[in-house]
## 1
Amino acid sequence: MSHNALGAMMVKPIVSATPIDLTIVAIYFVFVIGIGIYLKKYTKTGEDFFMAGREMTAWIAGLSFLSANLGALELLGWAGSAYEYGILAVHWYWIGAIPAMLLLGLVMMPFYYASKTHSVPGYLQLRYGPATRGLSAISFAVMTVLMSGVNIFAMAAVMQVVLGCNMNFSIWASSITMGVYVVLAGLLSAIFNEVLQFVLIWLGSLLIPILGLVQAGGWSGLKQHIMTNLAHFGVQNPGSYVHVWSTLGHFSDNPMGINWIGIVFGLGAVISMGYWTTDFLVVQRVMSARDLRSAKMAPIIGAAFKMFVPIIVILPGLLGLGLLNVHLVSETAVTAAAAHGQTLYSYNDVLPLMLARYCGPALLGLGITALIAGFMSGMAGNVTAFATVWTHDIYKPMMNPNASDGHYLAMGRWSTVLGILVSIGTAYFVMQFASIMDYVQALFSFFIAPLFGTVILGMLWKRTTAAGGFWGLLAGTAGSIAMYFWVDLQPSALRYIALSSDAKPMAADMFRALWSFIIVVLVTVAVSLATRPRPESELKGLVMGCTDVPDEGNYPLLHRPVFWAVVISVVFVALNLYFW
Amino acid sequence: MSKHVNSIWFLIGLQLLIYGVLITGTGVWELFYPPMQMTELAWTHPAIWWGAVLLVLGIFYVNRFRPAQVLKD
């Protein structure tokens, strides 16, 4: 959301909160701080602070795993994307999440869990050595605080547009509140709050799709409304907005400008796998599980809920597309209109507009609380992951390897404060440059896709060597950055990256990730075959084929992760076929 | 497993219970004093039935996970 546009829209917020709405929001703030104060007495060691004592149940770890991802750009951004691209946005919740979450639970979690490491860079240390760990830890730490800052800015921007709140007040009030509960009890209170936030996000957002579908006359009625509305606004090929797969034959057949190869291989096989299985922000939650069965079950529980998150994120965007009688536009168009004194609404405003459409006093407060909860869970996820990686993968191995547990616990608390302050600085920095959010998204993707290649090869192929892992990761990251700037400087290069001149920026992200993954695999394999492998005895607990995967226990069928993974897979296929 | 881990469900229940009371109460108040600006489908009185959903969920979780009950389990 551009700052100029915000300035122009300050005069007329989308909704106006009543005292009962503000009371509901205030109660939320009291609860999240209260949870931090209550849990402080249970946070006495580094293991408590960084790994929540490794005693979370599968349900708590699973809901927290999902909630940490329901951040600032998730709720509003994907609702806006659903308005802009139609139901195609649902791919980021289905093929762009479910297979990866099941892979994490069934295949990768035993190795993360058996290695008893504190972080994903910690696993890389065990598998590849300090150079790969250092590269991954530093890039992750930088990206994490940068993303946290963008989250803070996005939250303040939304509060200004929706409620007319002062941006400085929003930035400091949300950061201090989140800082207090994370500093007090670390990952433990972050996880507790994420579960609370998960429940509030659902209950605060669910009323919009319920009332919207009642008004539209169900799914078939909504499709008819979308066709009529888009035809009225002069949009070409409105039918492509309500199909998930049938328009992905060619780039020019759908509003996203992408084809099925980009979605299946770029999104499903690389970006999604990279994010859900190697981004420590989400993996940290699962590592806090109390035993292996819980650790395997947590991502599967997360997948079950993730499959239905489109009800509260994508459906409101589609309802806006079918029912709103104003046409929403891009941020650029909003800014241009604001310069001429006109007020337009952007795609990202669709969720607040739908909130204002259906929610009166008190329900509006609940909806605003859901938005704030979403923002805070995303911020806390970034900050706790930063504190752990900083303390365990940068400070401890590189600066002070022999300190006491109490010292590292204190360092965890101080690095949380440091992470928040840097995030606030980033939020103010982002405010100056409207387009930097796009750059940060791109920067983030530079490191996720290559990292997945490095981790998965390390886990599944015992021949991978330390040199192979390091040079593969470096080449993949450098290749991704080079492709990004190539297209940035010479837009026509997109036809080489995405293999079509009809491709749009979203397709560029998917194909860049796919190419960078291929670079990682090729370089890692080539260098590994040219260097000396580690003895198998050193790979126990780290690589498939060299590890006796710990027994998850003798449980009845209904308590087994693999049973629920099969159930979720069947529902996943059925949903894709229904909305084909 | 430490008992404090389950206290999250009690806290969630407590918050839903408070929200349920406030939202249902607002919905009932609006029956007698309708707001100046009506939302779409306001005639279905969503504050009353959605508030009731929160209230029922809140009562269930507070009762099931109240500290005395968790200690007994």
## 2
Amino acid sequence: MWQRRAFLKAAGAGFAASLLPRRAVALERSELVFASAVQTARGGYGAVLLGEAGELIAEIALPDRGHDITISPQAGRGVVFARQPGTFAVVFDPAGTVAPVTLTSIAGRHFFGHGLFSPDGTLLYATENDFDAAQGVVGIYDATGGYRRIGEFPTYGTGPHEMLLMPDGVTLVVANGGIETHPDFGRAELNLDSMDPSVVFIDRRDGALVGQLRLDGGLHQLSIRHMAIDAQSRVWFGCQYKGAAADAPQLVGYATQDGAIVLVDLPAETLAELRNYVGSVAASADGTTIAVSSPEGNLLVAIDAGAGRPSLTQTLRSGCGLAADGAGFVATSGLGEMIGIAGASRAPRQFDFQFDNHMLRV
Amino acid sequence: MRLILLVMTMLCWTTAARAEPIKPAEILQAAVVNVIRPEVLRFDATSRGLSSAMKALCASPSPNGKAIADAQFGLVVAAYGQIAYLRLGPMMEDNRADRLLFWPDRRGIGLKQVQAILSNQDNSVTSLAGLRSKSVAVQGLGALDYVLSGTDADTLTRPQGEFRCAYGAAIADNIADIAGALVAGWFAPDGIADHLMMPQPTNVDYRSDTEALEALVGLVSHGLEAMRDQQLNPFLAAADAPAKPKLAPFWRSGQTMTLLSGSIMSMRQLIGESRVATAVAEKDKGLADSIDFEFRNALRALGLVTLPVEQAVADQKQAAALSYLALVTDSLHGMVGEQLSAALGLSVGFSALDGD
């Protein structure tokens, strides 16, 4: 797939510059498998590309804290998005032949940390904040033309976070977290009393709203933020609750393109350990298992997507990053750990950097 | 000789006593018992005082009564500053944080709603029950700031200010009611205080010493971040923008620095009284002094800002003090949220607790 060998020729500033000679050997032998934003041991920010066994293939320096990463084999590029309310996204060449390029959000917008490529790799979509209007937008960038921003369409809500592409290749699904923020006030949440979270399906060809789903039953403070798609094309989502801690609402559910939205009943003790906070959601390679993480509760939960019941719970301090791995998942932590769970046969590994919230399997 | 021996024995004894590392339970108990509970009680007492002052002013409007209410409002803002960052437990229930102070109010929602209430003389807001059913933005300290110090506030000294005064009195009652709920929450048996002081695996909130310490350090780390991002930076001049003093909380009543000082003093006290910054390895022992030094720098800067915020940002020396305060707040945020957290083996600063 990716040409690891090409890293050896890389000359980009801040990229592969950190490719130490001993790592060149790893590079020769490794396939790029995982990518994650990190905080380095020196306190700086970057992204790492890792091989199957977790060996470090390359580091990409970032001007500030990153969040999620998307990679398109068709485009031959990956993008690290700044954590909200960041204004940069770094486009890098996973093959390391071209120096990274930093995109800056346009005036009046900032990134929300997530995005994706079109299936043919020609367009890049990013969730962004039109902060003066307190409206979410999807920014559209021309991946064939220097990542020029060529347009946007609304997310039909406030505070969009993760966005995925449905298996039809046409429909985007966006989690509108419902929380208003404005860069003048850092990460302050400005509308906790009047939040309006939703899951929306959008036709990426024209930005038309295909469907918008809201949770009822007084759950307007349940911010829908992260998602994964299962084998039945159901969109599983994980929430963060902004109301009273003792309310302890259900936090995980799924939405379908034909208009259903359901919260699954996790057992009370599991829910308690999630601490009203799901930081990441992933689907297994076969789409039959969903994993969710809570770095606040130090808990990872694997859920049988068919039965809607947990098949495994495991603690991992500050654990948040999740990606399909073997029959199960790889999980990473803000303390630098990488472990396998729920069917992944992976020896635990400790890194000298701290993983950010999301892990991408390439 | 005997004296020397005695002194040496005492020195050994005190050294031994000092060498005994502080236990998490002692840190957490000191934080709750010596700092949090007394400050919540102070907020409750001053709020009830404000409620009485507003009622007295409404019963017999006068400049003197208004001056008393204004002064009491300042005391409530100071006491509020000391508890504003305690964003866990009872503060996070029933929208209390927003009902106490809807801030930042980026689009001026609260201001417009308060002005509409005053202009329409909407009588439904003059009772506690009626007010509680309204928007959070018209129920708390921000709304009372406008009632006491906004346009036409001087009518409060005369009978024609009757409606405005009744609305202000209802806000004061609401603040006191919320203060009472905070006291109840922090003193409830088997409540947040007990869970913080005695973390148990069976608790729904704090199951271990580490989690409780993370909550404690997180309060200060997030409190400093909120102060920097919500109460300070928005109104300070930037490289490409002039100062915007009307984005300062309580600029009308001139209580901006009262609020900031209250928060800085309280966070300093929480770190100092709990001794949490001393529960670190030998190599990090200097951190406690560094943090306290920086807190004192912040208080020194605040002491230099004596003018109302609109004039302070135009005064070279006082504007410089405010810019310095922003730098110090940022530095403190790094020291507490990253250095202290790391020294204690906590994960306050990174993938946990960041709302992403």
